[in-house]
Inverse folding.
């Protein structure tokens, strides 16, 4: 079992292609736990991602998607 520290408010945990993904709403990032145990920042607010990433999903073409509940007009962010 692997424990991940330093999380603010992880939500919307999803398994995708062997990795565990989540939104860390309080820290403004989307992260994933790789199969080899590494934690990777995938989308970060400071680098242009949503300030408060929400739900996660994938479009039919494989594009990653995160809800942006605080955006007002734009319902999501793809990367």
């Amino acid at each position: 079992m692997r424990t991940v520290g330093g999380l603010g408010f992880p939500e919307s945990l999803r398994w995708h292609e062997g990795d565990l993904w989540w939104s860390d709403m309080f820290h403004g990032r989307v992260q994933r736990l790789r199969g080899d145990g590494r934690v990777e920042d995938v989308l970060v607010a400071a680098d242009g991602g949503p300030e408060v990433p929400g739900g996660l999903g994938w479009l039919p073409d494989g594009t990653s998607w995160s809800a942006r509940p605080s955006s007002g007009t734009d319902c999501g962010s793809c990367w």
User: Anything to note?
Assistant: The beta strands are 10-16, 19-24, 29-33, 39-44, 56-58, 64-67, 76-78. The CA atoms of residues 28 and 55 lie 13 Å apart.
